[in-house]
Amino acid sequence: MTLDIKYDVIIVGAGMGGLSTAAFLSKEGKKVLVIEKHDKPGGFITSFQRKGCRFDIGLEGLMELSENGDITGFLNYFGVSVETVKRTEKLRIFTGDKDYTFNSPTLKSDFIKQFPLEEEAIDKFFDLNEKILSEMYSGGAPKPPYEMRLFEKLKFGIESMLKRPTLMKYGMKNAYPILKKTFKDRDLINVIISKGICNMVYLGYVYRWDVVNRDIVYYPISGMQAIPDAVVKNINDNYGQILLNTEVKEILIENGVAKGVECTNGSCYYGDIVVSNSSVHYTVNKLAKDAQELEPLRKSIEKREIYPGAMINFMGVSREYDFGGVNYIAIMDKDTIDLDFDDYTPYNCPIWLIVSEKPKDQLDHSVTILAYLPYKYHNNWDTGIDGTRGEEYRKLKSEVETIITNRICKKMGEDFRKSILFCVSSTPVSSERYTYSTEGAFMGWMMNEGNYGKFIPQETKVNNLYLVGQWVFPGGGVAGVMASAYYLSKKILALDNIDLEKKYKESI
Ligand SMILES: Cc1cc2nc3c(=O)[nH]c(=O)nc-3n(C[C@H](O)[C@H](O)[C@H](O)COP(=O)(O)OP(=O)(O)OC[C@H]3O[C@@H](n4cnc5c(N)ncnc54)[C@H](O)[C@@H]3O)c2cc1C
Description:
InterPro entries: FAD/NAD-bd_sf, Retinol_saturase
Bound molecules: flavin-adenine dinucleotide
Organism: Clostridium paridis
CATH class of the largest domain: Alpha Beta
Keywords: FAD, Flavoprotein, NAD, NADP, Signal
Number of domains: 3
Protein name: NAD(P)/FAD-dependent oxidoreductase
Pfam families: NAD_binding_8
């Protein structure tokens, strides 16, 4: 079936990257259509209900939702807002047989109290992190590197060395060697690493601990879903359209120019511009698989490391159970720091428990559990050659869930076990199935030394086909993908001589 309506822009996927692009463009009068295969918008930040408990896919909160945060800034620009509550972090971190507790407001003294022999090194750690962050935040938002001319790139490189020496020396390097040089106590290193995944660049940990240290995590009162829902409201107010439960099968390309999309239900939609918020791999290898122009991009991403997915389990815990105010728990094997991601098994992988903020009328606790296990674990979780999830997959999933739950209960105690009401588990294969994000990755590319800072542009070699979201500049995370939409929209609107940067700056 071919529909006659022609759109200015068709967007494949209603993740925060796709929705934000639609919001920026529809605000300027563009006729926009967003097509989403799921029954709700938001991609990785959707929320859902199970047995009276509300769950978010994984985020515990966002610092960018603070009053002056980037997400708040984008939402303000769209003329919408979400009501938030501050989430002061209280962390309990198990490493080997040790059990540590940290409170946001007293973070540094909690570190010193529990690792008194490392006091001097802890001081240095906090000082170093502060220096890296002040260098990073100086100089305003970066220009996308692919928009820089050679001279600008050189200038940027020299300026970075001169003005951001600490960031360059430490921030962009893998964290583990730096932490090993800083601290003698392996448990302390394990505690620091527990706020991320192994092998991340040092900056990743600086950022995550800074968020705790400054006590600036905010959570939408109505759950994470409130963020995409607010953006959808703005798109609708500006006459943009969102089609849910509709999957794009193919991006239609004629003579190297994107013309529209064909959906699995047979409908075709035509537009001057097509934007894909689907993963870059899915876009070039499935949706636009015949486009020869995309071959260099296909090759360049083929072997690139991606951010690992995880088994994500959603656990209802009885209202009777008292977490003692703890809202983040990490369980680290004593040797986790020596393992590569590919060596993780259910018996040694890091486990995080996020105790979510509850809606006023919810009695029991919602706990989201992340167990970092690779997509490739056990032959892609015992899926068949064609990726089918049969009996073996279900059996393995259930076995791994039990191992993870047992590891948690061993640390948290039998009271906790008795308080478990239900557990719904998902694997990286499920995350991929729901979002088409490659291997279920939820932050785009791996954030290690070889990958961090290498950006893919929004523009592709197929005319009028663009990418948006966690795989393109400036990368993953909710604020990151909203920024990727901003940069893309700036480019698209510039074709009509609309200066989005000016408008955005004037609105702040
Ligand atoms: C456990 C977890 C923890 C996280 N922690 C943080 C954090 O602390 N801070 C932070 O900022 N971020 C965090 N994130 C990451 C953040 O949520 C993601 O980076 C971001 O939401 C990705 O947005 P996106 O727009 O790139 O893509 P996605 O959210 O993947 O959206 C893509 C959308 O496109 C749709 N789609 C794909 N293909 C098609 C098709 N062919 N037809 C129709 N629709 C299609 C999908 O269904 C999906 O809705 C976390 C995520 C998870 C899951």
